[in-house]
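Lab notebook page, bench 4
Experiment: in silico fold of construct C2
Operator: M.H.
Input chain length: 214 residues
Purpose: comparison with the prior construct
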Amino acid sequence: MQTATPAPRKAPRPRADALRNRERIVTAAREMFVEHGPEVPLDEIARRAGVGNATVYRNFPDRDALVREVVCSVLDHTGAAGERALAETGDAFEALERFVHTSADERISALCPMVSSTFDENHPDLEAARERVERILETVMNRAKAAGQLRPDVGVGDLMVAVAQLSRPPAGTACFSADRFVHRHLQLFLDGLRAPARSALPGTAVTMEDLRQS
């Protein structure tokens, strides 16, 4: 007599409350990394997220895993903002503006340097997140150039350097209190990117590969 082979069990989907807790941890960690740096105690992150320490460690076995998730989340949110704007309006320059201002809101200039200075910047999750956001940004910029909206002599690397520099608060200024200046200066920069160009830029357009090799 043959017995039926049991069907393989599907991995259970995470419960909604578990997903909410994970998102609360990532949000709290992002805020506290910006305020206090990557060495902030994990129990303080748990307290701000409103969860127990065990919940933090159940989702993220160590600090590196939590930092990676925070940075990947920031990159995903930033890229998605550009994609949504492009899909909603079809206006490539508006999508570029949405990308730049969301980058500042997500504290990308404060968080991304943590990876290169403290953690494994070549982790597959980080590399995949970076590639996604670079691909989205390159698509948006190419469409804006093709539409005659964006000056042709700027590259993805030019944009990322400027965003990182302009969205970093001055020394002695709290990141969250500098927002009213940051978005103002980012918009001034964006207006300078519009075609036709008022002047010729020195050098050549900077790519992300140029930044990685510098």
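Observations: The mean pLDDT is 84. The chain has ten helices and no strands.
Next step: discuss at group meeting.
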